[in-house]
Amino acid sequence: MRHEIPRLAELTPSILAALGVPDASNSLDLRPVPRACVLLVDGLGWELLGAHPQDAPVLTELAAGAGPLRVGLPATTSAGLAAIGTGVSAGEHGMVGYSFALPEVGLLNALGWCRHGEQDRADLRELAVPEQVQPRQTVFQLAAESGIAASVVSAAAFADSGMTRASLRGGDYRGVHAIGDLIAATEEALRPRPSFCFAYHADLDRMGHLHGPGSLAWRMQLRQVDRLVEGLLENLPTGTLLTVVADHGMVQLGPDSLDVDSTEELWPGVRAVGGEVRLRHVYTEAGAREDVLASWRSVLGARAEVCERDDAVERGWFGPRVDASTTARIGDVVAVPRGDFGLLRGSAEPFESRLVGHHGALTDAEQLVPLVCAYR
């Protein structure tokens, strides 16, 4: 009997196995189906769902007796979408943060596919070709090769984004604008037999960032998510497995969070700082790693887990395997805040540093997400 919590990256291989794709690993023991849909609700943590059953009665009933998935580091959207799209963890798909180092560009903002921190947000899809940044075959490509109609239903604005091309390529992209056409497009995508559809909803995460997880605005959006799930269950074709998951949970920052940009002791020997508020990749100058490690540990103390790259890899933070191509993207030093502490960057990330809710770290509130399954 399996005792550890399954990883998010196990979901889509198990879906493919349930759809009959040869050699796909069904580690989640999903039963055979002709159609399958994964709805990813950005920011829907397992603990948050459990704390607000009155706002999500449909999801709460479906989740009864179910358990969570663990997303792994970093607990962030770029890594979660890539885990869904490739069926492997960050150490293999290489999307190791909201921003991370690439030799040809410096710090890549993975969601904007631009240089992190630059105001003009120039498009880097030609310089950092998404299919080369993340070259692994996607589950959508694998499904299509097996004769399965594969689709992605998400915001129309993301149709040809670098992140979509890197992690979700191979599916028929159906751009939508609201919950209504998300349900309609998903239903249409699942009419063929066999078929696989990935649907993405972002607004709950946005409310958590702006107003805080569990706030009134967040709870009202959770009610809309519950209606979305109910609408899918009412309209999806017979013979469909609907799974509802998330890419991460969220925490609200405490008042003692630190502005890295204004803390001079942290910068000697540092050439760049990537990641995000709840996980920082610290890239060091040649020969400075030990000194940087010591200074970050001294300044942050018990408020964060700070270790060298090799130590982070050895601990399995980025998954059971880390490819050589991924290693250089991980910081020479990795800093993961504990509790509700955050590592802000007021100058380089003014918008992000003003947000209320954040994610990325190792707490259960960020790591655990629902695995809700419903057979229609």
UniProtKB/TrEMBL annotation:
Signal peptide: none
Listed GO MF terms: hydrolase activity
Pfam families: Phosphodiest
InterPro entries: Alkaline_phosphatase_core_sf, Phosphodiest/P_Trfase
The organism's place on the tree of life at top rank: Bacteria
Protein name listed in UniProt: Putative AlkP superfamily pyrophosphatase or phosphodiesterase
Organism (species): Tamaricihabitans halophyticus
